[in-house]
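User: Run a structure prediction on this.
Assistant: Running it now.
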Amino acid sequence: MHIYTIIHTSISLVGIFTGFVILFGLLAGWTKWFLITTVVTSVTGFFFPFHGFTAAIALGIMSLFVLAVAIYARYPKQLAGAWRWIYIVSALVALYFNVFVGIVQSFQKIPGLKVMAPTQTEPPFQIAQLVTLALFVLLIIAGIIRFRIESPPRAAIGG
């Protein structure tokens, strides 16, 4: 299970990295890698041992749903019309879910953070999650504004 956790975490970190790459339009052709690694992260999350329906399972299901929408908007619909902003919202929501889990895991695994918020109900954890949510809301709004004008799909979102 330790090796599986390392693989799952590595894939998740690649998904987060590629998500930020496409968010800022730094490199063309990375959209598919963001979508692939983020789908794989969500799917592999279901193979950890669990007992009953958990918040992690619910988040994984929601992530796969928004990723399906993003993939449909990006590839079959090729960002035509409203599918452009639907892609932006769904892709950034999927990225937010990955970052959200990254923050949760950081506060569980990094000793300095765990001391600050051992039950994840303390203000440092809540502030970190609130700031992250606010940042992503702003990024989604900025993304919709920036890419509302029709342009070729590759130029608009990095490939």
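The chain has a mean pLDDT of 87.
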